[in-house]
Amino acid sequence: MNPGETQMAEELAARALGSYDQRPDAEGVAHLIDDLITVGQDLHAAVSRIPGAQRTERAGAALIEWSYFVDAGPLGHGDHANWNHARGLARIIRIMVSTVVEHRPAGAR
């Protein structure tokens, strides 16, 4: 992933991890989740390409958690469950972004 893509991922994560009074309406949360999943899938692929011996335990756990969160979806029903799902995805994205950035060639950061 290039620096622009990781920056976009960080910005999406920051939106999802904002305070509860900044939570978008139900449709906005749904769009945010879609965007998080799209960028997260690219990050998951990028982190997966890093040899396992070069990944931290935290990065390996993020790969597993990502698959679970995407497959399981929100735990519960309603706006609050969807918002919490977005926040969980965002936390995992932050770990994957930091992993990708750490493994990026020095000149590409």
Q: How does this model look, in words?
A:
It is a single chain. The chain contains 4 helices and no strands. The protein has 109 residues and is mostly helical. The longest helix is centred in the middle third of the chain and has 24 residues, at 26-49.
Concise structural overview:
The protein is mainly α.
Radius of gyration: 14 Å
Helix and strand string, N-terminal first? Answer: HHHH
Strand content: under 5%
Counting H and I runs of at least 4 residues, what is the number of helices?
Answer: 4
What kind of sheet is the major sheet?
A: none
How far apart lie the N and C ends? 11 Å
Relative helix content: over 70%
Tell the overall outline: globular
- Strand runs, count: 0
Poorly predicted tracts of residues: none
Global mean pLDDT: 93
Structural class: mainly alpha
Write the layout of secondary structure elements.
Elements: H1 3-16, H2 26-49, H3 57-72, H4 79-102
